[in-house]
Design goal:
The two termini are about 30 Å apart. By secondary structure, the chain is mainly alpha-helical. The chain is globular. Strand 3 and strand 4 form a beta hairpin. The C terminus is likely disordered. Helix 4 packs across helix 5. The protein folds into 2 domains: about 70 residues, Winged helix-like DNA-binding domain superfamily/Winged helix DNA-binding domain (Arc Repressor Mutant, subunit A, Orthogonal Bundle); about 140 residues, 2-Layer Sandwich (Beta-Lactamase).
């Protein structure tokens, strides 16, 4: 294995840092978190930069259509260009197209909300949701990010990862690093399901078969899993990946 492959994500980021690109990404990420337009001076203070450092960056991003500037105040905000780019080619497009009708059918059958998540940059990213038809239900915002160690979805995703990849994700989790060794070992074997439990409601165990069937159908139709016929072939088993 080469030295390059041994470097962690943070080490690669430090070694191959591109300051100008880092500044641009800092600006975009900060503005994405703000509810109102932000001035150049406010941006500089928030990002711990000199005002002159980000002047050209803002001008460039504005000219490329990523930012718009308020005529009256000169404050900056994001345009819809990032959204347009994400919609042009999404790595999850096929998965979402397949999953959404199946998830809706599952929500109708179990009368519970369900959501589809992936691990993204060490966090659980919610891609899609199908809401329960009940008036009182659990809802999770699409596009929201959550801790992989404090969510059911995160624990399931981590439990199906290669150990080396899982360890890399967990190494960036402060709460995980503070856990005792025994708790870490128990966590790696945890596969759970969570739902709003009402008094006298149906048992969680009764929902598992439908949940498994839905996950299997999504995996099969999205091309993440081969059919049962193909799985009988020993040469194809190594290509099956869980959802």
């Amino acid at each position: 294995m080469t030295q390059e492959k041994l470097l962690s994500l943070e080490e690669r980021r430090t070694k191959y840092s591109v300051p100008a690109l880092e500044k641009a990404l800092d600006v975009l990420e900060y503005l994405s978190e703000q509810a109102v337009p932000v001035t150049q001076a406010q941006l500089a203070r928030a990002l711990n930069r000199q005002t002159g450092e980000i002047f050209r960056m803002l001008a460039c991003l504005e000219s490329r259509g990523y930012l718009r500037r308020e005529p009256a105040t000169g404050a900056y905000s994001l345009t819809l260009k990032l959204f347009e780019l994400s919609r042009t080619h999404s790595p999850y497009e096929v998965l979402l197209k397949v999953a959404q009708p199946l998830m809706q059918a599952l929500a109708e059958e179990l009368r519970e909300s369900c959501h589809l998540s992936v691990l993204h940059n060490g966090h659980v990213l919610v891609l899609a949701q199908a809401e329960s038809p009940k008036p009182f239900r659990l809802s999770v915002e699409i596009g929201s990010m959550h801790s992989p160690t404090r969510t059911t979805s995160g624990r399931v995703l981590l439990g199906h990862m290669e150990e080396s990849a899982r360890d890399e994700v967990l190494s960036a989790e402060t709460e995980w690093l503070q856990e005792k060794p025994a708790a870490r070992a128990a966590f790696k074997a945890a596969l759970t399901i969570a739902t709003l439990k009402e008094k006298g409601g149906s048992s969680l165990e009764g929902m598992l078969p439908a949940l498994r069937d839905c996950a299997a159908a999504i995996a099969l139709q999205a091309g993440l899993k081969r059919s049962s016929h193909d799985q009988d072939d020993p040469d194809s088993r190594s290509q099956v990946r869980p959802v």
